[in-house]
Amino acid sequence: MSAVIPIQSAGCETLPVKSEKGQREVFCGLTGIIWLHRKVQDAFFLVVGSRTCAHLIQSAAGVMIFAEPRFGTAIIDERDLSGIADANDEIDRVVQELLVRRPDIKLLFLVGSCPSEVIKLDLSRAAQRLSKVHHPQVRVLNYSGSGIETTFTQGEDACLASWVPELVQPVTTSKTLMVVGTLADVVEDQLRTLLHKMGVSQVSFFPPRRSTQLPTIDASTQYILAQPFLADTARCLEAKGAKRIDAPFPLGAKGTTRWLWAVAQNFGVSQALFDEVTKAPRQRAEQSMARHAAQLQGKKIFFFPDSQLEIPLARFVQEELGMTLSEVGTPYLHRQIMAADMALLPPGTRIVEGQDVDKQMDRCKSDQPDLVVCGLGLANPLEAQGFTTKWSIELVFTPIQGYEQAGDLAALFSRPLTRRLKLVA
Ligand code: SF4
Q1: Which of 223, 296, 211, 297 is CA-nearest to residue 259?
Q2: Which domains does the chain have, with CATH numbers?
Q3: Per residue in 301-337, pLDDT tens?
Q4: I need a surface site. Which of 63, 91, 184, 423 has the fewest CB within 10 A?
């Protein structure tokens, strides 16, 4: 059997997409610091915000008090708000103290928040000023993690988009592949190994593990997204000449196969070599999902909009686990980036962009799904009403991409149902 599963265009253009604007229940972009600081090992994320911002990232990251985390908060207090203290002087002082104490930091992100935006603190000028002071030991960049009109995965998008201008041209021009989006190191290693076996050897990952190992970029760079929430980053990469390889996201056996095949086609890999390289891991992925698919077959699932992973996840649970889609909510719909996954959704799938949480709750109650994927804020109220829930943020924190993670990804959907069965038994 051929390893390549064609994308049958069932519907990107034909799927109806409903837009809603109303009350939203989402985390802010500061949340991205949790996975970004683990990935980039010489970067530090300094939030310029309030005590609320500090509490959010500390509790989300589960920081132990004796650990030296690579993020912190410069608290904007009453003295800054009333103009008694100059906020820029305060930032300069905090950064100076931090860099003296932590010489391991090579890249510092000043991360804006709702409070810093409300008082119109210009962090881009602060970053430029501090870069000059601390160059060449430390590079200082800035982005916004504010929760005003954003959702939590946009923090990574804003971070990477702010970083793209730092990517320089290669010394020699040759066709290269850049995989874009934070992946767990173990996933990155697995994908790199598969690509190398296919003969795609010029592969870089963005963000890199160390800020000093930045990929280069020019018109011969082909990039492929590993995360679906990176629309601004994609625009910035294309402005530098890189070309996007269109593919469904690498979730499950079929998603990963299609993602890899899209690369293979762009790099002239033969079907025979592709099949040889992917056959064994693909079969392992199928076997690891089988038990969960048997449990989830025919179960109805409802996605509230939260992570922007909803459409690729809907494709995965419907196509590879046999679940029935009740509603697929997404905070934002980037049609080009989602086109390949949307084309694989069954005709008539109810996709909703944006949120009006009360109306959505009503539809959820009317549909009576077996499983609801939602943000933390909605999980408890829904559980209290008898629904079984899965926190969407877990699907961002957990390594889920690639063949070897397919079973773990399937388990994230079957485990809440198993737990519910035990509770009612
Ligand atoms: S950035 Fe805004 S939404 Fe996020 S924790 Fe701070 S105040 Fe709250």
Answers
A1: 223
A2: 17-24+283-424 (3.40.50.1980), 29-150 (3.40.50.1980), 176-271 (3.40.50.1980)
A3: 999 999 999 999 999 999 999 999 999 999 999 999 9
A4: 423
